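Exercise: predict the fold of this chain.
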Amino acid sequence: QKPMVVQHSAPAPVTPTLSGAQSEPLGPGVSIAVDGVRFTLTAALGEGSFGTVWQAADNEGSLVAIKEIPCRSDRELRRIMEEGRYLRIVETELRKWGSA
């Protein structure tokens, strides 16, 4: 599975939101968009201290893992967004070296 880190919003293009700001809770059958690609959540894979990891499928049936991370403040949201930028850098480097 191709891991993706996203913050939740309503079923529309994903925009990071603070906890409680989303109009629909995540769960099986909920559809969200990530970078212009629509995914439908199929199952919760697990839950940890940061949030829930969901299995989701795109329109072609490719499976991904989407991590829901509740943010309770702008500071938390900025920290999580920075973590996402670091993960994209790591992914780019892994692809460059043939490890992804």
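Check your answer against the key: The mean pLDDT is 77.
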